[in-house]
Write a structure and sequence with these properties.
The protein has helices at residues 2-30, 48-67, 71-89, 93-102, 104-114, 120-149, 164-177, 186-193, 196-206, 208-218, 222-247, 253-273, 277-308, 319-322, 324-337, 344-359, 363-386, 401-420, and strands spanning 38-41, 44-46. It is an all-alpha fold. The longest helix has 32 residues, at 277-308. The protein is globular and about 70 Å long. The protein starts with a helix and ends with a helix. Belongs to the complex I subunit 4 family. It catalyses: a ubiquinone + NADH + 5 H(+)(in) = a ubiquinol + NAD(+) + 4 H(+)(out).
Amino acid sequence: MQMFTMMIQMKMSKKIIQLSLSILMLKMMMMSTNEFFSSISMGMGNDKLSQMMMLLTVIISNLMTLTMKEKFVIFLNSTMLTILSIMFMSMKMISFYIMFELSLIPMIIMILGWGYQPERMIAGLYLLFYTMTASLPLLLSIMFIYNQLNSEMFTIKYENKTMNLMNMSINIAFLVKMPMFMLHFWLPSAHVQAPIFGSMILAGILLKIGGFGIMRFSTILENSFLSMSTIWYSLSISGTIIISLICMMQGDMKSLIAYSSISHMSMCLMSMLTMTKTGFSGGLLMMIAHGLCSSGMFCLSNMSYERTLSRSMFINKGMMSFMPSNTKMWFLISCLNMGCPPSINFFSEITIMMSMMSFWKTSFLFMIFISLIVSYYSFFLFSYTQHGQHSTNYAFSNNNIKEMNLMTYHIYPMIMMSMIM
């Protein structure tokens, strides 16, 4: 009887949290914000960038609640939502940095506590030391700016000379978080070992912190960002192509989706490095589109994992005959991942291509090649997992209502946002 009562309380608490997050999401959608900070109070403010990132955070957190079964995990989700909300609305660099580092703790607890294999210990250490080591120069740069200008607000300008060392110190923390090619080694291991709700928040929100930080600090150190953007731009283009080719050689579904996240976030980085309004708009659209699309792909891979107890693409073959109701979702999310219209992914790639051509005219050739490779490995993932002979052909399974709702809530916003634009 006591166990039954606890289960009812658990379901009620999830319903209350989901209702609260839905009301918060509607309230943020109806808020009118300016390009510059508004609703300023106690060192916190709101603008278009923070509003969109907050909206994405609430949507992903609401969807994560559907996959959770324990009260402590729901508490971690609420803690992460609070930390990220403070970080996105912060107008002070030091409070931004504190929340930037604090968001690491719930993520590591999720990986270590609910990960799949013993290798989750290594994945947690990778995530911890990569982020801590790379973010120390960011703290020193914030202290230097405060010492020079006696202010730590994001509204200041520091343009007395180009400071390439400071640019590298600031960028390295955010490039690890995005992550950029050569700084990405922690991401595949963290994604593979993380539970489904850990992968959702990691792909949906935490990777976007890097792009958000670059947008914020680029307005302060505009000249140094412009002088160094060519170097980061070249590394991003070459890294996107290499990572896209690596995606074609993966045999693990979660690993392939994790590497595709690196490819898409490198495209987002290329757009932001142009330092134009079009580039920032394309980068923001790509972050929102990838946050929903990548989270949905991880949900689909977890649905297959719960039935077959394997992430291997060699075992998860012929899922069309095993889970026919899931094939439509795989097809839709694969089309959205490769940027098919009508979706926000398509408009984000078009905007990114426009900004890249304004920065370097011949870069559209690389973008066309990147789009082709992205389309190839998305089609490869769908065709390899859904077609062919299933290894356990005698069994049959279908999605339940909760899983269908979870995928619908991922796909619906991506299409509806493109209609609003």
